[in-house]
Amino acid sequence: MVVPCYNELESLPELVRRLNYTCTQCVGNDYELILVNDCSTDETWVEIMRVSAGMHQVIGVDLAHNHGHQLALTAGLSVASGDRVMIIDADLQDPPELLAEMMAQLDVGADVAYGQRLQRKGETWFKKASAAFFYRLLRRLADAPIPADTGDFRLMKRQVVDVLLSMPEQHRFIRGMVAWIGFRQVAVPYQRQARFAGKTKYPLRKMIRFAADAITGFSVAPLRLSLYFSLWSVLLAILLGLYALWQWFTGAAVPGWTSIAIIVLAFGSMQMLCLGIMGEYLGRIYAQSKQRPLFVIRSIQQNAPAADAIGKSREFSYNA
Ligand code: UDP
Ligand code: MG
């Protein structure tokens, strides 16, 4: 279990109690509980140290400064060693008891079981409305099938976690990255509870930055805007240029107007077009700079060859 914690002192004892109980029910003693302190300003780290001193299953990770939710998660995932890793928030909005159902999904062949919120209790109408709008916008723009109404609450197989950790991008939108990775992903519906204690650590400012990370990380649509504008502006420039010529032809134009109008239109639309072309290249450079793996192989299937065939194929490959 990986849990990012930022000023979650009041939730921690209850969180640890419920996580321990759920894990013991599901897997006995064979689990680890990784509590990542995202440089809290309260006594969260002291509490984490206290809990981990009493139980070898609890591992505390203390970050050097406040890196934010997604990087705190990544730090926790890099420490996790389990065959299956669950991500869960510290505020108990996501019920840990769902672990059993997610484990069952993984047992029957899923690689990722993600929680999908049916209802969100104790959150403002603004948060719900903006989240609903955001996930629908993202679905249209993103080049990965990012499911609506999900958070990072999910259980993943080791294979998926390893691919996730091999993606070095700085601005991380983990639910999108997991969706991009692929494999078999199934939704587990649940009712999202109100926070156990404290208040949200995602004020509007952070929500907007998070949304920007999601959109820019998974779509070059904003960069394409200038190309669309440029195509329209070239068309408009041609029409307006013809109109300016017509005015000159019929003698209705003030001397000098036609030439100036055509110069402005031609240069304006040419600049737009060049910006659009630059945007296309920039998009490609950006994709390259993210250094994502080119492909993710689920498994490789090869039948065991007969004994003499092995010798032959080796010979062939050496000669080649
Ligand atoms: N969190 C974090 N670093 C931050 C902000 C939040 O580690 O800078 C953690 C927080 O402790 C919680 C999770 O991220 O476990 C989600 O935050 P929160 O519950 O405030 O978000 P919300 O559920 O309101 O979207
Ligand atoms: Mg929360």
Strand-helix topology:
Elements: E1 2-5, H1 12-27, E2 33-37, H2 44-54, E3 58-62, H3 69-79, E4 84-87, H4 99-107, E5 112-120, H5 125-141, E6 150-157, H6 158-165, H7 174-181, E7 185-192, H8 204-218, H9 221-249, H10 257-289, H11 307-319
Parallel strand pairs: 1-2, 2-3, 5-7
Antiparallel strand pairs: 4-6, 5-6
Helix pairs in contact: 9-10
Bound molecules: uridine-5'-diphosphate (UDP) and magnesium ion.
Provide keyphrases for this structure.
alpha/beta; 4-stranded mixed sheet; single chain; 3-stranded parallel sheet; elongated; binds magnesium ion; 320 residues
Radius of gyration: 27 Å
Q: Using the alpha-carbon principal axes, give the shape.
A: elongated
Beta-strand percent range? 5-15%
Number of strands: 7
Poorly predicted runs: 313-320
Strand order of the largest sheet: 4-6-5-7
Instruction: Tell me the distance between the termini.
Output: 48 Å
Oligomerization state: single chain
Separate helix tally = 11
* Main beta-sheet strand count, sense and barrel state: 4 strands, mixed
- What ligand species are in this complex? uridine-5'-diphosphate, magnesium ion
Structural category: alpha/beta
Overall mean pLDDT:
90
What portion of residues is helical?
40-55%
Helix and strand run: EHEHEHEHEHEHHEHHHH
